[in-house]
Amino acid sequence: MKDPDCVALLQWALPQLRMRWPGFRRVRGQVCKRVSRRIRALDLADGAAYRSYLEGHPEEMALLDGLCRITVSRFYRDRAAFDALRRRGFADLAAAALDRGASVVRCWSAGCASGEEPFSLSLAWAMSGSHRPAGFMLEIVATEVDPRLLERARIACYPRGALKEVPPEWIQTAFDDTDRGVCLRASFRRPVTLVRQDIREAMPEGIFDLVLCRNLVFTYFETGLQTELLAEILGHMHEGGLLVLGGHEVLPRGDWPVDRPYASLPIYRRVEGAAP
Fold this sequence. Notes:
Order of helices and strands: HHHHHHEHEHEHEEHEEHHEEE
Structural class: alpha/beta
Strand order of the largest sheet: 6-2-1-7-8-10-9
Shape: globular
Helix content: 40-55%
């Protein structure tokens, strides 16, 4: 399927999935390859024929939704945000938890793909011991809708290129070279609980100190859905908790109970007030 044909198809289909075309413009190649394979599997001629098929088979939309998931990820992506958490954020969150009488910092990684993000969080926590109170535990709930990606996360073995932004000394401490790739050691996997979940349908139970929702909701979903989900996310956060977005993402317009404690970084702090 040629690019203009794919673009026309996506511009028609994405709004029906509550997604937005601008978020896919730069990464459409990955999606178009998948859709092209699906068109060939159905023995259809082109994107226009697939659109007709979708109109006649509404159940196909669920499959197309899966084809539109972007799976580009790597460890320590947007390094400045992880460094800010390691140098200051974890200590602030632990201090706030201590004030509540807690000894656990609870985190949620939304759309965790193959586990690179929550495992990066576990690594950063382990390497920040001198920057936070002693005795605190880290708990990470990592959610992902694609079961194949979750299985990769459970195995926790990666090509070395996925670690190119991780400090070399961390790799020596936390990873083993195997015939399956570079594999994360069990002690660094232990804080992470992997859960199959679609953020559009459900969110993890409980209240979190830290939420990473990066390169998902605020890139690919339509503005109305972004607003709905942001209100729910903030409702799952402690006052003083941190919400981390992707490097080029911003919150949808609204009077949200957040401030920006880390200057230009896409890290928002939940302040007093109810989400709209």
